[in-house]
Automatic annotation (TrEMBL), chains A, B:
Record EC number: 6.3.4.21
Protein name stated in the entry: Nicotinate phosphoribosyltransferase
Keyword Phosphoprotein: yes
Organism: Modicisalibacter ilicicola DSM 19980
Signal sequence, renumbered to the chain: none
Amino acid sequence: MPQEALVQEEDLGLLVDLYELTMIQAYWAEGMNERATFSLFFRSLPQGRNYMLACGQQHVARLVTQLRFGERQIDKLRSLNLFEEGFLEWLAGFRFSGDIHAVQEGTPVFPQEPLLEVEAPIAEAQLLESLVMNYVHLETVLASKASRLVNAAQGRGVVDFGMRRMHGIDAAVRGVRAYHVAGLTGTSNVLGSVTHGLSAQGTMAHSYVQAHGKEDDALLAFARHYPGTTLLVDTYDTVAAVKRLIERMAEDSSLDIGAIRLDSGDLEYLAKTCRHLLDEAGHQDIKIIASGGLNEHSIRELVVNEAPIDGFGVGTSLGASSDSPCLELAYKLTEYAGEPRLKHSPGKHSLPGRKQIYREQEADGSYRCDHLTLRDEQAPGTALLQPIVLQGDFQEAAMASPDAAREASLDSVSRLPPELRSLVETRTYHVTISDRLHACRRLAESRLGLPPDD
Amino acid sequence: MPQEALVQEEDLGLLVDLYELTMIQAYWAEGMNERATFSLFFRSLPQGRNYMLACGQQHVARLVTQLRFGERQIDKLRSLNLFEEGFLEWLAGFRFSGDIHAVQEGTPVFPQEPLLEVEAPIAEAQLLESLVMNYVHLETVLASKASRLVNAAQGRGVVDFGMRRMHGIDAAVRGVRAYHVAGLTGTSNVLGSVTHGLSAQGTMAHSYVQAHGKEDDALLAFARHYPGTTLLVDTYDTVAAVKRLIERMAEDSSLDIGAIRLDSGDLEYLAKTCRHLLDEAGHQDIKIIASGGLNEHSIRELVVNEAPIDGFGVGTSLGASSDSPCLELAYKLTEYAGEPRLKHSPGKHSLPGRKQIYREQEADGSYRCDHLTLRDEQAPGTALLQPIVLQGDFQEAAMASPDAAREASLDSVSRLPPELRSLVETRTYHVTISDRLHACRRLAESRLGLPPDD
């Protein structure tokens, strides 16, 4: 019986779409081994999003430098009867020898801006297509969703309860880092948190209440096991449960309850009612946590309506970024053998050349606009694409800790024009295209005999 | 530097939400170790879906029987300063000792029907919550989406191009099996296909065309490397590319081209135009494959409009089931110590007890309705919940091969009332609740002093 459960590191080289392997065998057979640049970008923002937070690029860049094809992987490819022995030997000796430039994890990015560029002999760069896209797509989608929740909560904590809805265990573990970078305040996910050196948070489930005969017995037992814990009060009737809890606290002053959690019903009404009951009984220190089908819109409504909620737990809408689970990331050839290349399919045009993004600030430090240029150009502002792999060597300094990436990301988001932090589409952040980049596109078009695309 | 890339099998026990561990430590401390039943089900169908295909339950059941906590995992939990040594010892000795009943992979399921039920001492069953939900959620969501594409294509092939949009590498590999079970005809995903013993399919990317100076040189080079291959013809101008290709085929009769792929533009118009051009030149044998932002609705439109397309490649909409990436799966305690248990939160009621689903057929073999009963009841039809783990032993016979699961699934979907295979919500499949199950609910409610919930 094959072990189907988990992807092993030595199998990561097989995480390709078949056409990558057939194309690079063709390059190998044709002796096409000039240096190519592939650019990872998106053409438009998903509906309702004003920015995306780039995430995952450091992570996958490090993996790329470790990518190898072992005997077992080569045997599997040999069994497909598509590949020549000489090409399989080339794969067996594969080591990524190129460069990767990327923006920092947690950087807000906009359409046409490369999140990452790979420069290497064309077969090497082509081989990475699906792996790089899969990694950056997932973490960027999840970090961007988390950033919206952070914006909506306006300083209240938001905790990830999404593991059960996340798509598989790799997403569940990597997502925790992306959420942290974007500013969530915690996660219930144990493996995700220990993997990234973060702390896990937790309350209790309805099953604990159900398993005990009486609800208040269950709540008190749990509070005695875990002083300062959060008690789930909605298994049968929220207000009745809170009233009984207050009675039991009056009988036993040693009880230490940190918070109650509301998980269903009219959360605004219940939060106001429970806050009133708790305050009246002198329990101003007991916090109220809300969960149960929340998303950024319902959180914003609760915040705007001044529901006395101290923190939010979000599961389903976060775990797969349910309103927008995909980003149309593209990984496109933009230069080959020193010459600009582009694509001209309807609605899928691309900009040629190796690029740089300059982010220009106002005098107060807020972001004014970006300048998209060729790599060797100068423009006002800070250059966002920095080398993270050089001649096949991962630059360890490029791998920020989760806390450092989070700090940088929250700072960046705070510098965006404020309308961009809205939950609905407001304005387009201005990204200029440099004259030289325009000229480069026209040159590539004219060489292909194509009409200018402006 | 920790290896953050991949989840190791020995870490799977940590794939829990923290509250599972704190709750089971409380059970352990309280000596609550009676047998519990947890039921995995959903309360309502996602918008637009008339059924879900249950998938992943066999897979996770096998993992559950292999779940262990090693020294390294125990050390990680110890470092959280939440757990007593005696409880950590209990975890170190953990072996799942219970039973799991599940429906077959690829079975159409409806609201309130258990996809799976776990019966074990309460701590064991509680520990599995997030792991079981994560596995079954992902594969059920992906298989259900794939089933819609199969329904829309009406016999034409549908190939998975979704790896780059799938949420992480675990989803990318497991999804391939779920797609196959649901009836997709292929995948471009190499690791996913070799893992499950399936074959991968592939065409070529725009980059191959772009890297070569002239488009037709690129297409011919690729066709010579891979006789019978599929050529991508939309990099610059689809119709012009096909015309040039026909000219080149006229010059070199040895060229063997299996298909052309259209990846952008008006696919119906282009398919009809290209089909006409190819037929006129005597190339009736060259097939036309379409891709580029397709989903079940656009596929149905192309099929209804008789676009001469022989197969579809689907990426983004499939990879994360983008219109409906989440299912509100619940894992709820329904029995403890032989007594029925339920939840009564607004909108989140549950049915108590250990259950069975009977699927009743019409005389012609089509499905008439389902009967949801207590486990030990009899009702007309076939009992869908079958044991896949007994006293901790995985029943290998319960793990169908991908091909066997696919055959059973396609057969089941074909027996559904035809309206249920529509892409929009049509009718509700009838699921009766047995009198004894009703009575069991009323008993549980009255014991809790709750009003009847009917």
